[in-house]
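User: Predict the structure for this protein chain, please.
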Amino acid sequence: MTKRALHLLFPVFILCSMQVDGSEIISLCQKGTANYVIVSPSNASECEKFAAGELKKVLFQIGKAEFEIGDKLLQKSIVVSASGSLPELANSIKLPILSGEAYTIFKQDESIYLVGANPRSTLFAVYDFLNQLGCRWVAPDFDFFGGLNNSIPQKENIKFVYQGLKPETPALKYRKLYVEEGKSHNLQNLMQLVDWMPKARFNTLVIPYNYQGSGKVKWDNWRKELIPELRKRGILIEVGGHGYQNLINAGMEEGQLFENHPEWFGQDQGGNRVKEQRMVLCTSNREAVAYLYRNLLSYLKSHPEVDIFDFWPPDGEIWCQCPKCKELGDETERHILLVNQIAEWLHKDLPQVKVECIAYSRYTAPPLVSRLGDKILLDFCPINQCFESQIFENFADRNRNYRENLLKWKETFNGDISIYSYFRKYAWHSLPNIIPHYMQKDIKYYQSTGINGISVYSEPGDWFTYGVNHYVLSQLGWKPDADVDKLVKLYSEEIYRKAAPTVISIYNEMEDVVRFACNIPYTELKSPQQYDAYAKRMSACRKRVRSAMAENKADQLVYGHLSRLDLMLKYAEKSISLMRFKSVDDKGSVAKCEEDIKSFIKEHKGMGIVV
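Assistant: Here is the predicted structure, written as structure tokens:
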């Protein structure tokens, strides 16, 4: 950034701050003695206090020095504060203009300031500061990583290299992790996931209200333990998902709701009102809609922690076929009319709660008549995206259709649009579809169209498989033009240590093979000769991994991680064989391959590779 641009952005700050030419080395501690005091405002929020505590804890881990926390500005202070709290410490401090989730690290006189536009971004500033001291957190602290997911340097003298004012602002407003089907989530790994989120600058955790009505994956199962952990980190809590049936279904009122009000329930093509939960309520019936809303309002009043509620239809929904519902328009029109009505009522009763809906399945194209309310958050879901080409390329018709529909939404809707990405997809069955460069190209395109959110599924069960994707995505959500090769290198060095160069080359091969050669939905069948060539490349990768395993046998953690990588490649080989048999229509061999893959998945669950 030029000095002129910086001056335009922060006129007041530049006039009264010390000019820094080049870098300045600041000694934070020497031989276990702290040179600075951490300062947090006396009116600090819970998140700001947590940020100061995290700074104190990690600085001690680095240099074995005790940094005291106080609320008075001293000559040498590390100030941890949101911009709104800072005047309580010192009215003379002239701040840069910060908004949204921006933060900055700056020096004035002899003090260092870690300041965010809000408490959450103040915590981001702390982790960024620690990152600049050499700390790394490339994945949650899941057990199978054995601690190699993070590193805290050990230094007798801690020195911070200050290179001048560098404000940080996220490119995308929403950066979300979805629990969704929750096949491998439990309280322990959810806590580990939450701990990692602000270190990776994710800001929203999304957990189902009650996934598919089974009672197994639902917010209430974990909310008591998760709320304090999420709140002290400032993480947004998003609850909901498929579907309307959680708020109105035939089993309510002690099983009598359907008998008492059959007209509230959807009508099939034969003219019968039905109890099936996939059937959408009769949205033309105002009493039915009001009943649904009362249940939603009651839920949100008893769950005041919810920041965003996902109001989605049932998965694989069937819409009411009664004449009055049909008069409202097609399914997309009715979907938007219902969402608008619920959002309007909720805005009056609980204005702090944002309603989210999805452009999914038949709703990826916007309605022709109705308009979605601008206060609603829209998640656009390219569920059947072809990963052989980018979303903005014309090689796959389905990608072109998604792109065209997304642009139509941008033309007709003025609210926030986030991409419900499938950069980790359940239908991949944990195949090692490593796509860091692919993700960057898609995200840069999305950002260029004005999209301001990204999300991904977060299953711990195959996090090791997709770990490099997850880490790179966390950085791209903040800065889409980040150096992906550098990020892959950093991730690989943390997880694989000395074997990183070998792993990086294998990740590059996997990105160039798996999405074209394996059983990834909407990937076109190739010739047997092409599959043979792909299999040969994966075989060569396995040889390199086994060689690295032999070289790192003394380091059991690295050896174990390389063993997991070998299993990922073995799975890819099995999938390539499956696709080859499909290409020659060898049904018997296809069936045998599918059974072999099922056995492989069953055998290796619990290792971070498959769910």
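DSSP finds 19 helices and 18 strands in the chain.
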